[in-house]
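Action item from last week, closing it out:
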Amino acid sequence: MNTIIAKEVDAAITKGSSNKLDALLTLRGFACLMVVVYHGITLPQLFASQLSSDAQLSTLRQSIIYKGYDLTWILFSHGPVAVWVFFVLSGYLMGKAFYSGRYIANVSGTINFWRNRILRIFPLYYFVALILIILVYTDYLKLSNWGYLLRVLTFTYNPYIGGQALQFNIPFWSLSTEVQFYIVIPVIYCFFSSRLKNIWSIATTAVIVIAGTLLIKSAIWIGFHNQMTEDIGLLNMNIVRYWYVPLINNLDLFLCGFLVNPLLKYYENSSINLSAFKLPIIRILAIILLIGLYLFCAHHAYYQEKWLVPTSPNGFVLTPITIFLMQPLTALITAFFIFTFEASNYHISIKNEKLSFNAILENPIRILEIFGILSYGIYLWHFPIMQKISLFFSNRMPLESSFLVIIESLILAITLAAITYYLVEQPFTKQKKFNG
């Protein structure tokens, strides 16, 4: 078996590229779809009364009953978990940029890193923001609201500050958090690169990071303890505002992804060797864990957080499991997934064949990568599209309304994402420069 794999690697090196499914890009695409489904399920129902004065708040609950069992909870994609997966992936990839030698940890290398991040994030972000300010969120053009507009333009946007009427494109908040992380990633690399040399130091660091984040969240939870019995709705908003959005409370996600890099370096230089037989089994386990994470979070959202129960304040109830368990669980499972799929090729300089029609014909499963490639555009475009088209479906049956909103939004968002990918993203991406 090892001989066969060696021949395949030699053949790939001779050819100069391989044509395998990019697991991380595919995971990114699925995470993006989770966010779209989450907004499609909740938006037409939860905010129907705000989108249209004639629409009534309805619910999707108990829409799918099979032999007496309510299976509707399977549809309840957990949007926050999907965003957390994005953060773990981002932490890994930004760390890999330095660990792989693409950037050198000095002044010029750091400036070049920031420059390339600006070329990747800023053009499409500002293009979408400009279109939305002109066509959708016109209140932001009023002089009295320029302070909130400044938050959007400076990547300090928090959708839960300023009131419901001044909410912008809500998914923009995660871009603000990511850009803030990009600023500190060179410092993080310089601090950890010389210290994380063995498995114990890596594991200890992960435990400290997760524990430290949990302590901060505990302080926030204790700070709003009195509101638990007085005003659950206000509690939910404050927990989301101060616990969900800030970078400091998401550092465990970014850093767990980042720590996969020294772990892979250690694995590469150690005598540990995952055989060709064991590695596929471990990868299957990683996939099962991700599926299990989805099912657990969906079930918890449906039965414990009580999403879309008409009597629930703001449509949901945050629980201690949501606040203290789901985030580190997502961080660890996603980091494990990344490790299993990068363990065999982290140190091999083989470029994957560029996604094309011929590449998909040779390996049809690679069509899943399309969602990963367009995920940035889909993520930025889909929410305002949903806000507009939800008006047309709010009086239909809840399940039908949600599926129509999801399908219509995906079609429009993918179309706009594809257009802006070639007209906005690609021209700036080609201007990137690397040290290594």
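Closing note: The beta strands are 17-18, 65-66, 69-70, 351-352.
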